[in-house]
Specification:
By secondary structure, this protein is of the alpha+beta class. It folds into three domains: 2-186, Beta-Lactamase (2-Layer Sandwich); 228-314, Helix Hairpins (Orthogonal Bundle); 322-470, Histidine kinase-like ATPase, C-terminal domain (Heat Shock Protein 90, 2-Layer Sandwich), CATH 3.30.565.10. The chain contains ten helices and twelve strands. It has helices spanning 2-51, 55-69, 98-104, 163-213, 228-277, 283-314, 327-344, 363-380, 426-431, 438-448, and strands spanning 72-76, 82-85, 110-116, 138-148, 151-161, 322-326, 348-353, 358-362, 386-394, 397-404, 452-457, 463-470. It has a five-stranded antiparallel β-sheet with strand order 2-1-5-4-3, sandwiched between helices. Helix 6 (283-314) packs parallel to helix 10. The longest helix has 51 residues, at 163-213. The protein is rod-shaped and about 160 Å long.
Length: 474
């Protein structure tokens, strides 16, 4: 703000000095023209009288001209000494005004200047601003050379009051100062208003960033203004919202992971303590406990493996090792692997493969997608149920479906079915050895291949998982 005031002040000073100089020159121009003309005429008439040393005639001429011009007239010789004074006070005095020197030394015919009467200081109208001296008396000095036979034999000096002109210049100076104060005040007010308008969104954004740096991802800023500031505010809010969602997801993930890991560890601890403190435990019961501990270890291993897979996907370090493959062939292989389990439950797996759907993809990861969806269908479908697996080509996409006639998924659970550690029936899921991460991994793997996965279900009427993958021919 100080720099702004300095710039405004300097600009005003340059402008005001120029204006006051031009106005001062304009105000004096008419006076200078009149005084010079009259004094040159008087010098012409006085020239022969001075050459003849006719003092009486010269005195008469000076008195008459002084009365007509309203000022004091002095006649000086070639040395700058006053020979005659219309006021009769300065005879014999030597004057050293620059206007006199310009006639006698530099050979000018006429000259004019404004001086302070008491100090004799000459006024420069171009630097009038802020040099005001209200108590000073100002006079104009007009000089003209007295020429006889081509030689300057003397100088006429007309001393006339110019106080009225100076007062007009002082009034102009007052007006310029007033204008400066008004303009500076208006400029400051406008600068404050505009700076407030401009900096308010920035200040709000800065506060939001400070809150975010302290871990408060719920911070939002008001979308104000237009253009870049509005876009910046929207971008910040979008980023803040995503970070908040990510933070909540991370916290939920850590909480769920801790819970999932804690449960089998607690179970194993109870079983191991029972083995330790009951050394005479029945052999069959001991074997059952050891089997349960082994199962819990397998479950822990599965959870850790799934967690590592998700961490790799989140870090975007997963790379696809693509090769030519047939989705139909992968479905057949996985159906063969799951058939013994289905047979134990009296289930039937029905395949409807309308197209081989050859594509260029990561075989192991697509195999994981197909196996996980088919295994879930077998696992969660009641004894004697039916699992239908379909594959068909739709344009440039492969459509893979797994349908069962199991218990289905409640409508309120459908939006969360691919969330990590999400289970529709947590108790039954744990009994069946699920980690709650399988569908989340399937979702990520499908996305890695540029595909999409969805689920259609109605409680009590089974569920259908639909995977759509873009076909890339090898």
């Amino acid at each position: 703000m100080l720099a702004f005031l300095l710039i405004v002040g300097l600009s005003f000073y340059v402008m005001a000095s120029s204006i006051s100089g031009m106005v001062g020159d304009s105000l004096f121009e008419q006076r200078i023209r009149t005084d010079r003309s009259s004094l040159e005429s008087l010098a012409t008439r006085a020239s022969p009288l001075l050459a003849q040393s006719d003092v009486q005639a010269l005195r008469s001429q000076l008195l008459t001209a002084g009365g007509e011009l309203g000022g004091r007239i002095l006649l000086l010789d070639q040395n700058g000494k006053v020979q005659l004074d219309s006021y009769g006070e300065m005879q014999g005095m030597r004057l050293q005004y620059p206007e006199i020197a310009n006639i006698l030394v530099r050979g000018q015919s006429v000259d004019y200047g404004v001086h302070e009467l008491d100090s004799g200081t000459k006024l420069d109208t171009s630097h009038l601003l802020f040099t005001r001296r209200t108590s000073a008396s100002w006079v104009g000095y007009c000089t003209a050379g007295v020429v006889y036979a081509s030689d300057i034999i003397g100088v006429l000096l007309l001393v006339s009051p110019v106080q009225e002109i100076m007062q007009n210049l002082y009034q102009l100076q007052d007006q310029l100062i007033l204008i400066f104060v008004v303009v500076a005040g208006a400029a400051l007010l406008a600068a404050w208003v505009f700076s407030s308008i401009i900096t308010r969104p920035i200040a709000g954004l800065n506060r939001g960033i400070q809150h975010m740096s302290k871990g408060d991802f719920s911070s939002r800023v008001k979308v104000r203004g237009a253009g870049e500031m509005k876009q910046l505010a929207r971008a910040f809010n979008s980023m803040s919202e995503k970070l908040e969602t990510l933070d909540q997801s991370r916290n939920q993930f850590v909480s769920n992971a801790s819970h999932e890991l804690k449960t089998p560890l607690a179970t194993m601890k109870i079983m191991i303590e029972s083995l330790i403190y009951q050394p005479d435990m029945d052999k069959n019961l001991r074997t059952e406990f050891m089997t349960d501990i082994n199962n819990e270890i397998d479950r822990l291993s599965a959870i850790v493996s799934d967690l590592l897979t998700l961490v790799q996907m989140d870090s975007q370090n997963v790379k696809l090792t693509r090769e030519n493959l047939s989705i139909a062939q992968l479905i057949k292989e996985n159906a063969h692997r799951l058939q013994p389990i289905a047979d134990q439950k009296g289930q039937t797996i029905q395949l409807s493969l309308a197209d081989p759907c050859d594509m260029y993809a990561d075989k192991s990861k697509l195999n994981q997608v197909i196996y996980n969806l088919m295994e879930n269908a077998v696992k969660y479908t009641q004894n004697g149920g039916q699992i239908k697996v379909g594959l068909q080509r739709q344009g440039r996409d492969a459509r893979f479906t797994v349908t069962d006639n199991g218990p289905g998924i409640p409508k309120e659970n459908l939006p969360h079915i691919f969330d990590r550690f999400y289970r529709v029936d947590k108790a039954r899921s744990r009994e069946k050895g699920g980690t709650g991460l399988g569908l989340s991994i399937v979702h990520q793997l499908v996305l890695l291949h540029g595909g999409a996965i969805s689920v259609e279900s109605e409680e009590g009427k089974g569920a259908t998982f639909i995977v759509e993958l873009p076909l890339h021919q090898g």
